[in-house]
């Protein structure tokens, strides 16, 4: 984890760093954070822990969420088009009306909620 990422402990700090042009937040830990309605287009949140976070209506278009923990997160109406979901843990997450078109996932390593329809979401297998 970079020194910059480890210094970010709050939603406000993350949003301010993003607004200042930072895009890499690898291994960030903000469990149960409220990031609803945030614009984080193109952000790198690989290996981040956002378990239980409120990500409703968040713009994560083109984001790298590889190996991130998003279990039990609310991604209702989130924009994840073109994002990287390789090895991402989305178990128990809420994906109602989430836009996932052209998002990359690994059929062997990405974990989705029970009964999630990958084909209907128009996602792309990485393998």
TrEMBL record:
It comes from the Bacteria. Keywords: Repeat. Coiled coil: none annotated. Gene3D superfamilies: E3 ubiquitin-protein ligase SopA (2.160.20.80). It holds the Pfam family Pentapeptide. InterPro entries: 5peptide_repeat (IPR001646). The keyword Metal-binding does not apply. This is Pentapeptide repeat-containing protein. It comes from Phormidesmis priestleyi Ana.
